[in-house]
């Protein structure tokens, strides 16, 4: 991968996308992780810092303070307007619902509340919401439906996790972002690779082969079968809801 070339292409494509849609401003959720950090920098390069807003939306019961501080520092270093809004206050009313709030429901609620806030801001300021998902996550269905999948465009959605890391180095992102253990922070101690049951290194090696219908190395066939099964199970998350035609 030619990271410098990819950077130029993405900056150009973001700029063109906004012109085509007659928009100038972008808003994104800035988590303190590598994906949203890369997206923020690309947006600044494409649109100018004055046209980018970062919303930092921690759940104080789950989000590490380190990530909040890193997100603020990144926004400040690029001159980007940012707001820290604790989402706890919006989560609490759901406890009044007359059914049990299961772990998965609570986890997904974090992402969906954030999406509501991002779109509320976008409506208020005539902005587009930038998604921060990458290709590896998208094909594994590793996102919350109507949560972090709710966006107007995905700048790094065609980049595998390994490519995002390479791009992060190219654009000069701090080493600490590269060294963080990937986590959506939907609950305490949650880690992407542990939850998916596969490392990004193996996932990024196999996904291109699977998508092209290529030959999988014998030693990785079990992993490939797991990936293929997950892709099938989560296909509905990558499509619009079906219309049951008469």
From TrEMBL:
It holds the Pfam family NAD_synthase. The keyword Ligase applies. Pathway: Cofactor biosynthesis; NAD(+) biosynthesis; NAD(+) from deamido-NAD(+) (ammonia route): step 1/1. The keyword Transferase does not apply. It catalyses: deamido-NAD(+) + NH4(+) + ATP = AMP + diphosphate + NAD(+) + H(+). Belongs to the NAD synthetase family. NCBIfam families: nadE, PRK13980.1. PANTHER family: GLUTAMINE-DEPENDENT NAD(+) SYNTHETASE (PTHR23090:SF9), NH 3 /GLUTAMINE-DEPENDENT NAD + SYNTHETASE (PTHR23090). This is NH(3)-dependent NAD(+) synthetase. It comes from Candidatus Iainarchaeum sp. The gene is nadE.
